[in-house]
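ok posting inputs for the iron/sulfur cluster job
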Amino acid sequence: MVARLVLVLGDQLSVDVAALRQADKANDTVVMAEVADEAEYVRHHPKKIALIFAAMRKFAAELETDGWRVAYSRLDDPDNAGSIVGELLRRAEETGAQEVLATEPGEWRLIDKLKYAPIKTHILNDDRFIASHTEFETWAEGRKSMRMEYFYRDMRRKTGLLMDGDKPEGDKWNYDHENRKAADGDLCAEGPLKFEPDEITQDVLGLVESRFGDNFGDLYPFDFATTRKEALQALRHFVRHGLPSFGDYQDAMLKGDAFLYHAVLSPYINIGLLSPLEVCEAAVKAYADGDAPINATEGFIRQIIGWREYMRGIYFQQGSAYTTRNVLKHKRDLPALYWGGETHMSCVGDAVARTRANAYAHHIQRLMLTGNFALLAGVEPTQVHQWYLEVYADAFEWVEAPNVIGMSQFADGGIIASKPYVSSGAYINRMSDYCKGCHYSVTVKTGEKACPFNLLYWHFLDRHRDQFKNNARMGNMYRTWDRMDEAKRNRVLEDADALLKRLDAGEII
Ligand SMILES: Cc1cc2nc3c(=O)[nH]c(=O)nc-3n(C[C@H](O)[C@H](O)[C@H](O)COP(=O)(O)OP(=O)(O)OC[C@H]3O[C@@H](n4cnc5c(N)ncnc54)[C@H](O)[C@@H]3O)c2cc1C
Ligand code: SF4
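and the output
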């Protein structure tokens, strides 16, 4: 039998990944490589690089213990070729292998590199997902509107999760309207389980500190799970302590609490330490045992078998140019405050500070603070996309790009979102405690103390009237704007213009 190489990428750390399932332990060599190309094509948060390298080293050791032959390259190995394809060619020469088995990468960039590699490469479907590309394309075909909700219902039927025969459990598909409680300040969430770095992780931390210490983000303290065993502990911890209140406070934000009742499991699911289905099954079991309410459980599994699968479907269905879409023609550069530059906005400042510290911010911070501000300010979507790809530990293009380009920036013209996710300060004030200590006043609409979200919200609606005037879901917004007297509208627009000018001049806003 011809010896083959079996490529396992840093986000494919599962024994169930397609290439390993098809490989032959006796003849094939597993190739795993920490390479400069992948670590440096954007300036990833140091915690993200450390998570992936530590988890890769430990997964490689587990494969070896299980009898696999593994050719592992560390980033600082002198012979390291610096790229995935370069490493495959080097290992092919060493072993005499003439073919490669690979599981499809989650990014067009790398898929293309493997497709055109000068060695025969079989790219297998990544079946760690619930819907295959073909299933998603069949679902999407001929639809005028590709709303997530209908896709999600199909995924419920397919998996049988929270189904009572062919009906949804509790007779309702979606409990979202029960999941919008504001945080009242005295919530006492447990937060995610933390793990002490062992010797292997410490080695990686040393390497990352020396090579990537200048990237945006704090490397220490580093407390992510880096093995499947630890990730399973983190899952059990969340199901017990976070899930019961996950639904109620899903959209809430608190300055003093970075995680609230969120799972912080996306980094582990996305690199393969946990499977999406087992995470949902654990939640549904808690519901069946009477340990979690239906609104929390349904809300949670919807994020995974609904949103997560749907985002992947969109990324692959739309093709590689999706990340460059910009229907609103936004051109502004990403302001320095996204890199920790000073800002008077308590909410955005906190979201960026959390991101720097944890390589994490929860969904509402990503969507309604950093995302909302970038959209209102008219930042070029590809720059926003690159920022999100760099700064979050769970950021892989197949899931990050549709969330940013589609959901958050409306740059795809409404494939994902039926209207742009924009809000004035009132929404942020309702859902958080940020406004209390802010330099700006959330109730002030014009003048120096006016909340920037208030000014930019109307500026956004006004400058994009042609794009949105016929959007039924935005009619109320335009009616409110049009009802304001003209002098007030002019003042809002003038103040918003002045704010944007100050932003462009690098002044603190
Ligand atoms: C602008 C923007 C950028 C984002 N970038 C990423 C990204 O790079 N990687 C990423 O995994 N998620 C991304 N998301 C989605 C979501 O914010 C994160 O999945 C979530 O915050 C991860 O934290 P958690 O595990 O605590 O999630 P929870 O809130 O506890 O949700 C549970 C799980 O549901 C899944 N999930 C929830 N929302 C989404 C969603 N919109 N898309 C896909 N999966 C979802 C995740 O697997 C998550 O672990 C982004 C969202 C926005 C608005
Ligand atoms: S007043 Fe405006 S800028 Fe300040 S925290 Fe509230 S929403 Fe954010």
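notes: The chain has a mean pLDDT of 96. The two ends are 66 Å apart (CA to CA).
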